Amino acid sequence: MHIDPTQLKIVEQRLLWLSHWMIHHANHVRPKMDGIKIGGHQASSASMVSIMTALYFSALRPEDRVAVKPHASPIFHAMQYLMGNQTLEKMKDFRGFGGVQSYPSRTKDVDDVDFSTGSVGLGVAITSFASIIQDFIKAKSWGADTQMGRMVALVGDAELDEGNVYEALQEGWKNDLRNTWWVIDYNRQSLDGIVREGLFERIEKIFDAFSWDVVRVKYGVLQRAAFDEPGGDRLRDWIDACPNQDYSALTFMGGANWRQRLMDDLGDQGEVTALIERRTDAELAALMENLGGNCVETMARTFATIDHDRPTCFLAYTVKGWGTPIAGHKDNHGGLMNNSQFAAWQSHMGVPEGEEWEPFATVQAPDTFKDFLASTPFFAKGPRRYFDDKLDVPPIGIDTSREISTQMAFGKVLDDLSKGKSELAERIVTTSPDVTGTTSLGPWVNRRKLFARSEQADAFIEHRIPSTAKWEFAPEGQHIELGIAEMNLMLLLGAAGLAHSLFGKRLIPIGTVYDPFVSRGLDALNYACYQDARFMLVGTPSGVTLAPEGGAHQSVGTPLIGMSQDGLAAFEPAFADELAVIMEWAFDYLQRDGEGQPDERTWLRDETGGSVYLRLTTNPIEQPGKRTDDEFRSGAIDGAYWLRKPGPNCEVVIAYQGAIAPEAIKAAGIIGEGRRDIGVLAVTSADRLNAGWTAAQRARSRGIQSACAHVETLLLGLPRHCKMITVIDGHPATLAWLGSVGGHQTIPMGVEHFGQTGTIGDLYRHHGIDAHAIVEKVNGLTTGRRVLQQHAGLLNPDCAQ
For residues 609 and 590, what is the distance between their CA atoms, to the nearest angstrom? Predict the structure, then answer.
């Protein structure tokens, strides 16, 4: 590989200038509307500029993918601007509305972002899972033509404080990780100060334990040359022994202070003194700040030495704020050059006034430089956003003639798909954090096998030991088994959900997890949705309906997570036929990428597509019989339908969601004997109902008076005096807003406190969400005829007195 240090140095200096000018312009030149600091991380960008120059303009190929350290975003966008892939207008609007985003964003930035970053540690870890997904695709007959690339993370050393990084390291080791580079910007400074001494030794041991190669890049070209001079070995020893705080402080103070300290510590009136005295103050400062990670030639040559696919960690020593007046200062993370500092630095960089935005300012031979940029392999094929055709979704049905839980129905749907030969089934990849069997994925896995790059036999099968789990690992396998780390689950779903864009091969990722532990992976779930990954997340079992497991395994707030999470359509069906309709719709929804004009039937932007969350249960309940009418099907998808339509003089409506359905239905039968025209609203998605309602209100406020949401249509005929009882095995706020739609008094019921062990009946009574509690609310909080409960054996002893 030919490396041109001269041209790389020009690129480095151009990126350093353009990134810092963009930040300075946003903070000190552009008018401020609200007087708040804009920020932009000049120092963190500077420490990465040599690494990123060497990586993008020497080492990478188009098939490689990079997660850029969040605080190096300005370098990334400066690079894209230099290559003509970012606009001047967006650069000028850095951190403004519609401008270059604070941190690289696949969905908000216009340039070629591979992975969104921002929540530190997650961008690092997703590269490992993207590599596993690349292997998964390559092993399939339909993915054999995939070009294998390296998945690269540019890592801030403080990101290694994040626990999910180590969870990902262990999972990578289990899955024989390859083609992954993590480049650590080891500037030894974090938000609040200097990193502890000796951290690099711990880092190296950790990576070595998980079978990574570790490449320490400590000295730049100037330092290595000085070490070869007489006395150079003593200078190297001094650098190795110098505490991080001292090194940072001396860097900030500059050449004269370097000279004094070195002469005090090393001056011998001999070889070392001569080495120091041969250099001016400026040359001495340049030498001492020429760490490996701040030397573009060293980084380029280091990257070029890697000729294998083993996972590799580069520990690149850098100076935070390198090449700027704030280099080394412990406050420089959030600090910015002031106007006088920047003016002096602009003069030092040789950028004429008025040419600050000029990409090729200061370039002495622009034609040669442009030729170099044009020949850079990474940018040779232009933007690298791929696409794959949509997969046809086969009809999905299920037998509703017997009692069944929604979790069992989910497993049956996948089992039926596994038996067929649809293209959709071929592209499904399932995954679970060690709860495959207990979330009903077992039949699917038995038929479709587990994924591994090489075959691994199941000893139980070989020895003919009876087991329901036939776990064979093979390249054609379609299930990726994870350890108990929900962050890894969400990151793998995120990587798989971007496969069509990253690798040009569409996957249908499905992940299962115990519903209470959705919260454990919430940061990574939000991260996956933020970059518009497409997947189906199944939280099961859920609620206090998981009675014997106790409070630690009983979810309460997850329905609200489903409502609040952007990019995720949340459903909680009660019946198997509802689930079948929703899953058939969801398999198509995951693949949509339209422009997002609202559907005038629901005012939901369904054409944009997104991910789907299903909250299911293990409680088998009686099914309502075969239902195939369009009103039921569209209602299940849009969020609700009338299970029992209210009459014209309806006094009470019971609106329920999910597993609590039998209690709501039972209560309606009792209440109906004393109250007129009672209605039962089956809510399958409070999320979609609420989103459609708020969208329709926005449309009406903008003059579209015909806008009417699905929930408004459903509740349109209810008389004003009608009372609404909402009930869910989850937080009552999930449905409490329903009364606001038409101005009806609402009595919300649900779970607000931690659960405990017991039977389902015990816990429903304890939390006040059983049929008796519903009737009690009607009797105590609404006007009208008192309802007696003995009809269903629900007589409260207190009421019999």
Answer: 6
